[in-house]
Amino acid sequence: MKGKVGYMKKAKIIFDKDFVVGEVDKRIAGSFIEHLGRVVYDGIYEPSHKTADELGFRKDVQREIKELGVTLLRYPGGNFVSGYDWKDGIGPRDKRPVKKNLAWNVIETNQVGTDEFAEYVKKMDIELAMAVNLGTGTPKEAGELVDYCNTKSGTYWSDLRRKNGYKDPHNIKLWYLGNEMDGPWQICRLTPEEYARKATETAKIMKWMDPDIELVVCGSCTPEIGMETYAEWDRIVLDHTYEHIDYISLHRYYSYDPSRQMFYPNKDELGDIPHFFTDLDNYIHTILSVADYIKGKKRTDKEIYISFDEWGVISSTSAQPGGVKQEFNYSTFSLLDAVIYGGILCTFLNRADRVKIACQSLLVNEGGMLSTEVNGKVIRQVTFYPFMHVAKYAKGVALKAVTDVPKLMTKNYGEESAIRTAGVYNKDTGEINIFMINCSLEDDIEVEIDLRSFGKVVSKEHILLYNEDYKIYNSFENPKSIAPIKVDLKPTDGGKVNIILKKHSWNVLRFTTE
User: Fold this and answer.
1) Is the pTM of this model over 0.85?
2) Least confident residue range of 205-209, 257-261, 298-302
3) What is the rounded CA–CA span in Å between residue 38 and residue 376?
4) CB 332: neighbour CB atoms within 10 A?
5) First to last CA, the chain
6) Is 416 known to be catalytic?
7) Are 74 and 33 in contact (CB under 8 A)?
């Protein structure tokens, strides 16, 4: 709603150095690569491109990924992995089988596989997280993949890796036990009891193969109405697997275009955006409550953490699961999408005690923060920037904010907070970095930020991502239509500072202590 003429809404936000949520894990800045559309082929991999390296990967895309600050990449899926035989993607490329990608109903050439991708992320100093096939795959095959990747030598599979030209093991430490196994669209979908047993036996074999790895079990992949196993799936799966795994995975995509229907009916509209972050926080809270119930039931001190290994905005994307043949290119994201990205990232930071891993989906082209032309250039979608800022500045401990902020009336969910924020304090550098979005499409808000508990605080900079038109986006014709700018940040007065939070904007407020 519009405010009164001449009246600006006000908010107050307090961050206290002693009100700590938890340490921010650097893997919160993860992303996701799947064999889908132009994510791999003609995305990160294009041997004919002028910047291609010796393996066929585009160096111009690699430079942008490093600038983005991605710390972890999940691979190779996604729905794709539930029908994927990892052995098809190793060995001489001219001898690899060409098969149908059942998840997305396209041809898979297998020119990019485990070894190439492991080498790719190694060059960029990014951690690789590998998913195993628990759809058509078996526990034995998952154990063999761990052997191939992590055993130095002396076994059939490790020696085969060496024969294929990779003398040193890939040393992959984070592994996913399948993907969205509760989804009706998934290849060889399982009941919670079936999946729990299969995941348990797979986990045992994989950890016998390498005791140092960490395992992520599939949780409910959406809280949408229609997912009848939601939460009950997590209870059953964790009850069986608790002693064998370290994380439970969650997925969540948002769309404010009601004509863009997901697998389950979508009623969300533009006016519902402020609710997205409440929904996300409720989702996290529900699954953690289930995990803690199982912890209590088993009378154990072990705590299960969350890997939020697929998240994004899909108002402008086209991928529909379920083996439907589709044409994929790249997704165009607006300033409003970037604001939602910022709110999602703030939600993760505010649960840094338990949300340790998060993977934006997908990295390039379909759903991507980067878009590529075939034999052409790469551009940054506007969603690139909030992710980059969090990857760069969210280092240290997340702080619990005490807030008094205006409310917005949503279309379908009642009143929600107009502002979403998160703060991170780096004790080593003395930096305080505050991330903030204004969900309102109409009103600026005057915000008082109170940092008195930190003693003398010096203002460094205010990074602002804003345009009057929230539909603005970057394109190949105008790749810099919108990018962050730096605006004046007033000096603090007694540990306080006031700013004007522009409507539909993403903000990074940077301070240092003396």
Assistant:
1) yes
2) 257-261
3) 14
4) 14
5) 41
6) no
7) yes
